Amino acid sequence: MRRLGASSESDSDGTDIDISPLIDCIFILLLFFIVTTSFVRETGIDVDRPQAASSQQLERNSLLFAVTSDGAVVYGGEEIGIGGVRPIVKRNLQKEDIPVVIQCDKATAAWLLVRVIDEAKLGGAERVSLATRKGDSD
């Protein structure tokens, strides 16, 4: 027999947990991390980098340019030429001070590499590095 005001075992006793605010909070955190994460834009081509015994790991957030053996300068998978380096560096350094890394093929002419470095420096880059493979011998 049931008494008035008494709850049966199948009725809830008010201890239900509402997880919708928790899910909202997790989505907001996820959006925050996606927006604040900086992504590295790869050059889009493979170059045969020379080896260097003094190689060291650079920062994850950097501007990557590639210079191929046939003289092409590539950024983000697109050939930009030597003249495209300075505006890209200038535009990206307005946001934050990030290093410029040049991936250069072993067979690239030295004059071309120097021109790319000059264009990066004229664009405002203070830190310009060359990407190499770590190793002691070729």
Structure commentary:
With 138 residues, the protein is an alpha/beta fold. It has a domain at 51-134: Nucleotidyltransferase, domain 5, CATH 3.30.420.270. Helices cover 28% and strands 17% of the residues. It contains 3 helices and 7 strands; from the N terminus they run H-E-E-E-E-H-E-H-E-E. Strands 4-3-2-5-6 form a 5-stranded mixed sheet, covered by helices on one side. Helix 2 (85-93) runs parallel beside helix 3. The protein is elongated, with a radius of gyration of 27 Å. The model has no long low-confidence stretch (mean pLDDT 77).
Helices and strands, with pairings:
Layout: H1 20-36, E1 51-52, E2 63-67, E3 73-75, E4 78-79, H2 85-93, E5 100-104, H3 110-122, E6 128-131, E7 133-134
Helix pairs in contact: 2-3
Mean pLDDT: 77
Spans of 5+ residues with little confidence (pLDDT < 50)? none
Give the strand content: 15-25%
CATH architecture of the domain at 51-134: 2-Layer Sandwich
CATH topology heading of the domain at 51-134: Nucleotidyltransferase, domain 5
Number of strands: 7
Q: How does the major sheet shape up?
A: 5 strands, mixed
Structural class: alpha/beta
Strand sequence of the main sheet, in spatial order? 4-3-2-5-6
The number of helical elements comes to 3
The radius of gyration is: 27 Å
Approximate helicity band: 25-40%
Distance from N terminus to C terminus (CA atoms, Å) equals 90 Å
CATH class descriptor of the domain at 51-134: Alpha Beta
Give the helices and strands as they follow along the chain.
HEEEEHEHEE
Shape label? elongated
